[in-house]
Amino acid sequence: MRIPILFDRAERPVQRAVGAALLLLAALAPYWSEPLAVSVLQAIARAIREADSGTLVLATFGRAGLYTLADGAVLIGAYLVVSGRRTFSSSRTQGVFAAVALAVLLARDAVAARGVPGPPVPHLLSLAVVTALLARIPERQRTVWSTVGIVGHVLFAGQWLNACPILIPFGFGRDDLAVSLHLAAEFLGAEPLLALLSVALVVPLLASAVLYVQLAVGYAAQLAAAETIERQARALHEAKLQLLEHRVYQELHALVHDLKTPLVTVEGLASLLALAAPSEQTRAYAQRIEEAVQTLATMINEILREDVRVDTRPHELVNLVRAHWLPHRDHIRLEVEVPPDLPPVRVNRIRMARVLMNLLENAMSAIGDRPGRIAIRAEASDGAVRLRVEDDGPGIPPHLLGEIDKPGFSTKQATGLGLPFVKKVVAAHGGTVTLASAPGRGTTVVLTLPCAPDPGLPVKRTSPS
Questions:
Q1: At 400, which helix (H) or strand (E)?
Q2: What angle is formed at CA 206 by the lines to CA 204 and CA 208, rounded to 5 degrees?
Q3: Quick check: helix, strand or coil at residue 169?
Q4: Are 393 and 444 in contact (CB under 8 A)?
Q5: Is 295 helix (H, G, I), strand (E, B) or coil?
Q6: pLDDT tens for the 465 residues of the chain, in order
């Protein structure tokens, strides 16, 4: 899960342009902020005339808001410009950010003071705190809006430090509005009030900024831990699937291997029967038994050895699959369009038949109990044969297309061994698998297998041994 930000990577040029516009706006602050500064001065004058400390406090709030807005435009603009090129986590980027922001702040103050800016202590302190807090926030949680919040809290707290009379000797409160506020506070005897308000506001403002950073760090740690657990769970699930598949293959391997002994016996007895048969018909029966044993022996070898390949025409492969078609699926119509004259493919027939059965089972599962149609089609194309399995099921949502071929994925609470197994077997035969699906349009899976290199050669049979 990723926290959304204002600009993604493709929009970084826009981010830098917005940052540059904010820096320009901040540089012109002495001009566009003049009406607001006049309003603050008028409030100070009214407080003196009426001897009203409350009006002076309101004027102090107005000045703090005005300077927070002006300085915030500088810091946010510098952040957008600098972080639009590289990550803010590097110390180099943080140094560039502080240098750009400080340069714009001093240049603006020089314009406002007509060439003689005040001490840079408030700016340096605010920049140091903002940079330290932003640097501590993990990259994934450092959004533009969180940056605005932190900058706003720190700058508003800094402006109340400028309003504190106690800090004047340390370089705070040297701008025109701050000097006017301090003179009015001295005249009204409100200096203790401003000092108390400064402490009462600065502490919670800075504390809230620090608390947000700590929460962001803690959330990032929890998020990283959750992602680690998810990766470990996925790896464990895949390991269990591989172990299950390996155990099934081992058991099947042992079972099929045990079939070879009775096959040898049957083949030997059939040979003796053919030799001792009193009639031609009996010898023909014995010959058919031997041929059936040869066929079964070839199938056993294909199961025991994945590298065994037999030249097989596509319609023979499809007929082998049709023999396993479940008769109770009478609500699903199976259409087969496989020309018998297609060139043969060199495949392990047992494993390739299992591939087609997997695709048929997936299609039947997608159709469910409603009437439906499944089609198996084949065609030759550029030295290859394309086997196409189509269904008119509900289709696969687009957001699942990228997940469906991952080991363990299943939308039916099944083992999830289907499509990964299909791709693995077809790839071992030098072929490819493509899948096309859309909601409401069904699903089509295309297996592309290379034609047998020597289609004219006879198919080799293997005797049991």
A1: helix 398-401
A2: 65
A3: helix
A4: no
A5: helix
A6: 333 444 555 567 888 888 889 988 888 888 888 899 899 999 999 999 999 999 999 999 999 999 999 999 999 999 988 886 667 778 888 898 999 999 988 888 888 776 556 678 889 999 999 999 988 888 777 777 888 899 999 999 999 999 999 999 888 988 888 999 999 999 999 999 999 999 999 999 999 999 999 998 888 889 889 989 998 998 898 888 778 877 776 776 777 677 777 877 887 888 877 777 778 888 788 888 877 777 777 667 666 666 678 888 999 988 888 876 655 567 888 889 999 999 999 988 878 888 898 888 888 888 888 888 999 999 998 889 999 999 988 888 777 776 666 655 555 533 334 678 888 889 988 999 998 888 888 899 999 999 988 644 444 444 444
274 is written with which tokens? Answer: 């053919």
For the chain, the 3-state helix, strand and coil shares in percent, each to the nearest 5, are 65, 10, 25
CB 194 within 8 A of CB 163: yes
Q: Tell me how far apart the alpha carbons of residues 213 and 131 are, in angstroms, rounded to a whole number.
A: 12
H or E element in which residue 336 lies: strand 332-337
User: Other C-beta atoms within 10 Å of 442: how many?
Assistant: 22
Q: Which helix (H) or strand (E) holds 192?
A: helix 191-258
> Strand pairing partners for 337?
377
The C-alpha torsion from 133 through 137 and 141 to 142, rounded to 10°, is 50
**C-alpha to C-alpha distance for 108 and 445, rounded to whole angstroms:** 66
Q: What angle do CA 439, 440, 441 make, to 5 degrees?
A: 95
Cα–Cα distance between 403 and 265 in angstroms, integer? 49
From 164, 32, 147, select the one nearest 101 (Cα to Cα). Answer: 147
The residues, ordered by sequence, that sit 6+ positions from 250 with a Cβ below 8 Å of its Cβ are none
pTM value > 0.70:
no
CA-CA distance, 28 to 13, in Å (whole number)?
23
User: 170 Cβ partners below 8 Å, 6+ apart?
Assistant: 121
CB 96 within 8 A of CB 85: no
Q: For residue 92, give both structure tokens.
A: 């180099």
